[in-house]
Amino acid sequence: MKTHDLSAVLHDHADLPETAHTVRMAALRTRVRRVRRRRAFVAVACVALALVGGAVAGLPSRPDSQPAKPDPFPEHLAGSRIVAQTSGRTPDPLALAFTPSDTAELTLFIGCETGTKSNLKAVLSIDGKEVKQSPCHSGSTGISTNETRELLVPGRQSVVRLTVLGRITSIDTTVEDAAVEPAEDGIAVRLGVGREVPLAEYPMPPAPPEPVEVDGLVHAADVVLRSDPADPNQPQRIVVPWRAITKTHIVVGSPGRVRVVVAGTTVDDMTSFSYTATGSLNGAVPDFPDLVPGQPVEISAIPEAQHGEWAVMVDMDG
């Protein structure tokens, strides 16, 4: 019999009293066993974490295969509320299915975030019929023509498609004739449909601390009409001897609309939606065959919902 077996037998047959010392020793042995089990568990856990960490660190990073979608058009844009839109990236074309309730006040908006001042050349079609070739650049361009209004039939779904043809390198006469080179892949492209909002209901931006002046855009002309400093929505009129009009020029420094009316007919119309000094030049004023040279004619500038300075310049023949 081995020594430890003999001691076990003697212990089993001995009627030993359970002293405080034996109790303390038993408790101590219990605590020792708990500490050993805890240390063993911690050691195993550390090894497991090290293995997992090594596996995670060893995995190659996975770049997102789908680039983030371009920022959408804002809810309100250039006098319209955007009612449908889509976005993507070149070279894929964009397609937007849309069913208009009416088409009288619809505008198609396109945007190509080139990040520079250069333009892309894009073609816009409705139900497979090309309706417009247009420069496409950072920001937005509104397109509303007789053809777009005719093709968008109320109550019938149409598919509006935008395809980028390339980057414009030069324009001789028209966008259709513009030379292009291949555009880079991954350029953000947007397409939307907007419905015109009444000017009085359109959410205009807050006014700047100081009024925006338009003096720098005003030039000498045969007729110059300027806003009333006390009331920018006061119409301005003048009567002059008739001569054919060659061009009109409207400049504004705030949101609002200004129309140029000659002998009761609107010949120019500009609306702004920002507090920025900007202008619109119109060189296609209609003829007035019923007017006789020298005949007194009224030329008016009619503002609407104006918030600041504006001016109208009219150049006349001779």
Explained architecture:
This protein is an alpha+beta fold and 318 residues long. It is 18% helix and 38% strand. The protein has three helices and 18 strands. The protein has helices at residues 3-13, 20-58, 146-151, and strands at 76-77, 80-89, 94-98, 106-113, 120-126, 129-136, 141-143, 158-170, 179-181, 188-196, 223-226, 236-241, 245-252, 256-262, 265-272, 278-282, 296-304, 310-316. The strands form four sheets. A five-stranded antiparallel beta sheet has the order 1-2-10-4-7, with no helix packed on it. The radius of gyration is 39 Å and the shape is globular. 23% of the residues are buried.
Spatial separation of the terminal alpha carbons = 137 Å
Compute the average pLDDT. Answer: 81
What are the segments in which pLDDT stays under 50 over at least 5 consecutive residues? 1-65
Order of helices and strands: HHEEEEEEEHEEEEEEEEEEE
Strand residues, percent: 35-45%
What strand line-up does the widest sheet have?
Answer: 1-2-10-4-7
DSSP, total strands: 18
Question: What percent of the residues sit in helical stretches (DSSP H or I)?
Answer: 10-25%
Mind describing the biggest β-sheet? Answer: 5 strands, antiparallel
Concise summary:
The protein is of the alpha+beta class. The protein has helices spanning 3-13, 20-58, 146-151; strands at residues 76-77, 80-89, 94-98, 106-113, 120-126, 129-136, 141-143, 158-170, 179-181, 188-196, 223-226, 236-241, 245-252, 256-262, 265-272, 278-282, 296-304, 310-316.
